[in-house]
Amino acid sequence: MDVLRPKILNIDGRKYRLNTDDCCLNEYVEPEIDKAEKQMHNSKASERLPSYVERDDIEEEESDDLNIYMEGDRCVLKLEAPNIFYGLIIGRNRENLKNLEYQTRTRIKIPGMRENNVITIKGEQRANVIAAKSKIDAIIKRGRFKQSMTHFVSLPMVNPIVIDNYLAFKKIVLDECGQCRGVTELLFQDQFKLHLTITCFVLCNAAEIKRAIKLMEQPMNLKSLDVLVSGLDYMNDDPSEVNVLYAKVESPEIQMLADKIQTFFQDCDLALQPRNNHVKLHITLMNSGFYNYQSSVNGDSGNKSHLTFDARKIIEKFNDYTFGTVQLSEVHLSQRHTFESNGYYKSSFVLKL
User: Fold this and answer.
1) Count: domains in the chain
2) Residue that is last in its domain, among 89, 117, 146
3) Least crowded by CB within 10 Å, which of 81, 99, 214, 328?
């Protein structure tokens, strides 16, 4: 948007600047409507020009089983949405909500933060209600991508042999490469949390977690596999400035399985969109993010958010290190920054293969 020449929206003689950028997610505006404004809105509604509604959006939504019902002469739709996104929908000074209502010729009630997470959309025409829902869904989708992931689909890569070999790797790296810049014990992954990440989610409440579980319960025809964990690699191009050092998994079978799981969830509006169609198979061993996270937990405000470490000597000495073979028999919906009694991430759901 050109801030010097913004688009102007004229509503009942009042001019509004039409913002294209979303407001801050954490900012919430109370949804009560001023009575005078509401009366003016109702009295002028018949004088407004018909709004333009994208037919493609409507036709796409009309194929869905939307629970739209009649309340008098109005079509009504109840839409569940996490309250973390209400600030985006309402906007500063209620601008987003006003524009949304005007564009779709609907009335939209946003519940209070302590009420249930149900948005009510009312309109004279079914198409307008569906259009309002589509726009709200788009706002929530954009807002979801700005949130940090809360859950992820993981494949546990742990057994006694792999754990022992990993701990031996950790010890010898610290002994022989501990003087390399940035190399510290805080960089290492917990031995009980070694895993492959397939798909990441932002699940904001219990209802969304339940939706993700329901998806995982659908048949994907996955089979158990033996996975060899061997060799080292790193994420960026410069081995002297590494953020993530990982163990490699090179197997066409596991690649096909991981890609199949990712594709299954790709159209889910709860999942963060992948960068490409193929999962990058990697088991994180050392990550500068672990150091930053642990420092923040310990109250160290002086940690560097862009910390890297020099991995040249590690790669030179241990490039062909073999950690062992894991029998892949489970797919987990894991919760970030948590752990079970066995040391692995807490799981909202476990799919047995």
Assistant:
1) 2
2) 146
3) 214
